[in-house]
Design a protein that fits this description.
Elements: E1 6-10, H1 18-34, E2 39-44, H2 47-54, E3 57-60, H3 71-82, H4 86-112, E4 117-121, H5 138-152, E5 156-161, H6 169-180, E6 184-187, H7 190-200, E7 239-243, H8 258-277, E8 281-285, H9 292-305, E9 314-317, H10 322-331, E10 334-337, H11 340-348, E11 353-357, H12 360-368, E12 375-377, H13 383-395, H14 399-424, H15 427-430
Parallel strand pairs: 1-2, 1-4, 2-3, 4-5, 5-6, 7-8, 7-10, 8-9, 10-11, 11-12
Amino acid sequence: MGEQLRIGLMGPFGYGNIADEALIDAVISNLNDLEPDWAFVGFSLEPTDTTRQHGIAAYPLSHIATVDGAGQIGQVLARWRASTSPLLRRLERVVRRVPAEFGLLRDAFRATGEIDAMVMCGSGQIQDYWCGGGPFSYPYTMLRWVLLAKLRRIPFLVVSVGAGPVHSGLSARFFRYALSLTEYRSFRDRWSKDFVADVVGFDRDDPVVADLAFSLPPTPNATGDDDVDDVDDLDGGRLIGIGPVGYFREDSWPEADGPRWTRYRDEIVAVVSTLISNGDRVVFLKGEGIHDQPVVDEIRAEVRANGIDVSRSLREVPVMSVAELVAALEQCDVVIAARYHNVLFSYIVDRPVVGISYQEKTDALMQRYDEDELCLAIATMTADEVLGLIDKAATRDRSRRGAVTADQRRLLDEQYGTMRSVIVGSSRASTR
């Protein structure tokens, strides 16, 4: 029987992204297969949610202090936050966050004293665009945890991580230094590894493995065969799954750009309207419960405004878990996906997919399956292009898919063995 170690799992968990939650499950399941006695601790954006979903203790990954609006200081900070001046908004963030950072460092140091290794669990964590943006968002967060791991003499493993975008030179320096202090690194695709070499300036002989989601255990249909939000009672022919994203939509994207959002939305509306008018059925697949709901609502409203009767041809499935996503995808004849993980899980369940790419990670995934011709850039795609690829995706020879998916799983199996060796062989774990 193996030694009982406690493994910290770090990632942007807890804000409703199905794929990110799947990654922590994948790591727990596969490491437990190798070491049933190991225990796990989450380091996430919402520890309470992480404990609820995964049944493990959890600590804050990062924290943004809130300041009471009462009093002169609160009023000044509120004015700075609402200012049109980038300098004042940046100053407000510094004044608001610095005091909280000292408390977080104290708590984080204590938390790392209770674990024997830290694992950064995949996802696109080498970036400074999401989770607040800038060098003091995720770049600083990663550097903080790596340095704390070093102080505690525990290994830090970066596994199957994705990269980009990184806009700040300081972000690149933070990431470069953090990566240089880790005991193990791998990337989920070649594009991410090249990006880290070219943009971050960190180029080592690290492996390209696969996205951790490929190592999830088989997922049963949690909703039951007859309860995928009644898609069977829709009128029409093919069932087309559409997974939209709030591309530059205010409150759904790190940046707001009305014309860019409107252009993308109108093309998707045209796709949905044409499909229904041609006798197909459409089901919306949400990838994030919070950010995608208003996107789906707006697209549905625009389709109705086109005079399309959606009552018998359009549904929205409640996708709150991987099991529900898999159940929904398996019902679809073709999937049109903007979110990366909707493309990925389409491959896992062998569904024809048209990718709408807002970042190179989708291109890299579809290239791995030799299906990059079915991938369109979100900034320039048109409804006619999407509609033209649906039949092409549906009739494409998919015999290669199973072999590629099996190879992804094999590479991940080997990586879990390597992770186990690094963790067990670390100085603190091996001397307990």
